[in-house]
Amino acid sequence: MEITVIVPVKDRRDHIGKTLDSILKAGIPPKEVIIVDNESTDGTYQFCEQYIKNRPNMTLLRETFPGAAAARNKGLKSCKTEWVYFFDSDDLFDYNFISTFHDLKPEGYDLIAVPTKQRTQDGKEHVRTYITSDDPRVQLLASVLNTPGMLFRTSFLKDIGAWNPSCRIWDDWELGLRTMLHQPRVLWYTGHAFHTIRLHEDSLTGSSFSMNYKEIIRTLTIIIAHLQSSILQPLSTYHAQHLDCLYPHLDLLMYPLYLRTCILLGKIQNEQFRGKSRNYKMASKALTIFRNDNFQTTFSQRLTGGLMRLYTMLGGRGAWRWALSISQSKRSRKVKK
To answer: Is the CA virtual torsion 91, 94, 98, 103 positive or negative?
Structure first.
């Protein structure tokens, strides 16, 4: 497999060198590494200029439109290999990642999905939820597909519209859902988790949901637009050519999205009790208005969403499993938007 690794970077002068070292020192290095600087102001671009000298398999580009999604798309346009992988600038590349897939025969697949790990700000590390399912509802509630968990066939990713630059946060969740809506041929790898997603103050997800509620609501709005518009018109060029990939009961996706919004609201309100954010009141109000404006639910569905919100607000974990079980049951077939 010939793979290009694309690394978007902004103001990571203290991290990018270690990240690039780990990529180049992999057991089998990628065919090409494309670094895309996104208007850094701390000397990152100048550092990368020096780093790629005498390294013919490395390219440095610039993207002025803000956001990691736009930077990734910039690199994708220059990608010449059959497969493409996106890696964050402050993580370390697993030595065995490419060599593990080198002997695979991925002909006929559009995506290779892999499990990942996550390290919280207090240093705790765990394997992220990984469910080998093509059901878009699983992506909606469990966020199985994330940036280092998706190895794309380059042509497929371009055909479905690539990354959405309007999403400044949760862009991999949006891409993962849009990918599942196209019903790709997925090779689910279950060996072990390769890469660790580091959560820290300067990461895109930030230190709390409340601090980023505006961008989260923007992404949620884009998701709803996907679900609604795809009923009337193709989501992409690929979709127009493969209309049979339309989700058979697309309206059923609205209910799990509603439940995810309830769980998110509970997490924001939980931050109030822990004193983690000063924006929780504005965030809670904005998300409540968004939920009320975009979903039409029955009394029992509102009751279920309220219980999930309360459970999460009190510090409960794993409400998404409950939500997934409910959304996949026969009762979800009664939901209309």
So the answer is: negative
Which of 126, 169, 177, 124 has the alpha carbon at shortest distance from 150?
A: 177
Contact 213, 286 (CB under 8 A): yes
Phi-psi label, residue 330: left if phi above 0, alpha if psi -120 to 50, beta otherwise? alpha
| DSSP output for 152-177 | EEHHHHHHTT---TT-SSSHHHHHHH
Using CA atoms, how far residue 92 sits from 29, 38, 216, 291, 293, in Å, is: 14, 20, 26, 38, 42
Closest by CA position to 31, among listed 57, 60, 59: 57
Paired strand residues for 33: 5, 58
Topology (CATH) of 3-198? Spore Coat Polysaccharide Biosynthesis Protein SpsA; Chain A (3.90.550)
Could you report how far apart the first and last alpha carbons of the chain are, in Å? 43
Q: What is the pLDDT of residues 43-88, one digit of tens each?
A: 999 999 999 999 999 999 999 999 999 999 999 999 999 999 999 9
Return the percent helix, strand and coil in the chain, to nearest 5.
Answer: 45, 10, 40
pLDDT of residue 63: 96
- Collect the ranges in the chain with pLDDT lower than 70: 199-207, 229-234, 239-251, 275-278, 330-337
Distance CA 7, CA 60 (A): 10
29 CB neighbour count, 10 Å cutoff: 16
Domain boundaries, the chain: 3-198, 210-334
Phi-psi domain of 132 (left: phi exceeds 0; alpha: psi -120 through 50; beta: other): beta
Using one digit for the tens of pLDDT, what is the confidence trace for 137-178? Answer: 999 999 999 999 999 999 999 999 999 999 999 999 999 999
